[in-house]
Design brief:
The protein has helices at about 1-15, 30-35, 50-65, 65-70, 75-80, 85-95, 100-110, 115-135, 140-160, 165-195. It is an all-alpha fold. α5 crosses α8 (about 115-135) and α9 (about 140-160) runs antiparallel to α10.
């Protein structure tokens, strides 16, 4: 637990030190060349930092997200469930062996960056739920996804197709219970299963 907390603290310190201005002897490129080397359309400040990422990290710091993670008991429950940083090493090795994954993540960056502040705002209320989900066996999570898909099928069978509103209700139920919940459950079950092995 101490090692995990130390790692999280070091990660937080490393991310904040990225915003320290560089000495002038190292600043050989101009701001315009920095802007040209970043993602298309990315705004950078005078030292070449991506403004959106900087605002996100400042928002994380001002909201006290890491403190809330520590107080929620999420890290302790993850350790009790057998999840540790050493379990993440195979995932990093998989990413290193498949550079296509990193290309996809980089390509999705400009589209995902505006969503991150919303995720940071939603994170504190979801921490207790996540702390409880970590302790649930992966088979139960996968079973819940399959039960959700079965409930969607049952809703389509039970709800008649007489009106437009009923068809819309069927479509909404299938979208949520038949697609979103099963996919999230099965992916979550797979990830938790791999991390707790």
């Amino acid at each position: 637990m101490v090692k995990l907390f130390t790692f999280v603290a070091a990660l937080a310190c490393a991310s904040t030190s990225a915003f320290a201005p560089q000495p002038s002897s190292f600043a050989t490129r101009s701001t315009s060349s920095l802007a040209a080397s970043t993602l298309p359309g990315a705004e950078v400040d005078s030292t070449g930092n991506n403004v959106a990422v900087k605002k996100l990290l400042v928002g994380i710091e001002s909201s006290g997200l890491l403190t809330k993670v520590a107080k929620s008991g999420l890290l302790s429950k993850a350790q009790d469930a057998g999840i540790s940083l050493s379990k993440l090493e195979p995932l990093l090795a998989l990413a290193a062996e498949n550079p296509e994954i990193l290309v996809l993540v980089e390509a999705a960056g400009p589209e995902l960056l505006p969503l991150l502040p919303t995720l940071v705002d939603l994170a504190p209320p979801l921490l207790p739920l996540l702390a409880n989900v970590i302790s649930v066996p992966s088979g139960v999570i996968g079973g819940a996804g399959l039960a959700s898909a079965a409930a969607a099928v049952a809703a389509v069978i039970v709800i008649p197709d007489d009106t437009v509103a009923q068809v819309a209700a069927q479509t909404a139920i299938v979208g949520v219970l038949g697609l979103a919940v099963p996919v999230a459950s099965l992916v979550g079950a797979t990830v938790i299963g791999k991390l707790t092995k």
